[in-house]
Amino acid sequence: MKKGFFDSKRGIVLSGAVIGFLAVLLRQLEELWQTEFCLACFMDQFAGILGLYKATSVQYFQLEISGIILGAFLMAFYRREFRTREGSAPLLRFMLGFLVMIGILMFLGCPLRMALRLGSGDLNALWGLAGLVSGIMIGLFFLKKGFSLKRDEHWLKFKSVLYFLVMTSLLFFFLGRPLFISFQQQEFNFLQPIMWFSLFVGIVLGLLAQRTRLCLVGGIRNLFLCRDSYLFLGFLSLIAFTTLTNLNAGTYKLGFVEQPLAHTASFWNFLAMVLIGWSSLFLGGCPLRQLVLLGEGKFDALVTFLGMLAGTVFAHYFEVASSVAGPTLSGKIAVIISLVILFFVAYFNTEDLKKFKVRR
Question: How far is CA 345 from the centre of its chain?
Fold first, then answer.
């Protein structure tokens, strides 16, 4: 397909700027609900309204998820890139999605929210950035040694039916309130302008992310792996324009303490992002990229999405999720165990390392 404006560096810089501006604007409009723009956190809230765990503070559904998937679908359909495809290593992808969510709930944010936190002056996110880069570098070591998630051609013959069932449920939640979902006591009217603006922001994000292939993990990966700065420029643009928007709005607050929905446990912020970066690299993208791949019809992304939901449920039942007071003991143990599991996943799926073992 012929390259256009959004295939250029100017195009992805503009995309990062638009996403950063809209994310800050939406956060300010949603202050009533005490929430932050974080894709994985939206999944957390989605699990809450399904009644998969009981935490009334997060039992509400925001339309950004539906919007991102819908926007990515529309762009993929327009560009003839929408296809439901065979899945590879579904069990491992489910597990990696599970591990990503453990790291996210320890750090209190996905890579996208880490960038937005940097743009709002939260210096705790610097530890997260260092951890994300470290995790990606560890993952690249295994990739260069031959790591791969092997394809299973016999996995779930009904995959397309399952895919469309889940996607239809997500995309049409905003039309009403299904009887089986549970909201917090504060009721939300789905006809409020803020709800439709949330959907609009999600659609714009989905359109731009699909068109430009925007991915924070992918940007850092490509920069180190093949010296390609295209995706990384989108990452820098997102931080820069988030900073400018916050400065203009008077919401920029530089420092470590008293940052919204963040804690100051530097070591655990770092380690959580190592887990997220390493796992996301093996999955082929950050949570934002996984939602975009859902919109493109990728069954692998659906399995990852379900793994992240399972990780959310586990984290809340076993008190793994951090709070503004800091990480819990259960959370620290879960992150350490997750990194050990991830190492074994990497080792036993890396061809060169297995050959080395046989030679010995």
Answer: 21
Nearest Cα to 40, choosing from 279, 326, 338, 344? 279
Count CA within 13 A, CB hemisphere, residue 141.
11
Cα Rg, the chain, nearest whole Å:
19
Note the pLDDT of residue 53.
Answer: 63
In angstroms, the CA 255 to CA 124 distance is 8
Q: Which residues are CB-contacts of 52 (< 8 A; sequence separation ≥ 6)? A: 309, 312, 313
Residue type, position 305, single letter:
F
Percent residues over pLDDT 90 in the chain:
51
Helix and strand element counts for the chain (H, E): 15, 0
Q: Which residues contact 86 (CB under 8 A, 6 or more apart)?
A: 151, 153, 155, 159, 299
Q: What whole-number distance in Å separates Cα of residue 92 and Cα of residue 107?
A: 23
Contact 238, 16 (CB under 8 A): yes
DSSP 90-147: HHHHHHHHHHHHHHHHHHTS-HHHHHHHHHTTBTHHHHHHHHHHHHHHHHHHHHHTTB
Residues of the chain falling short of pLDDT 70: 1-2, 30-36, 40-41, 47-62, 85-87, 151-192, 354-360
Query: What is the pTM for the complete model shown?
Result: 0.87
**Amino acid making up residue 244:** L
Sign of CA dihedral 100, 288, 8, 73: positive
Going from N- to C-terminal start, the domains of the chain cover 5-359
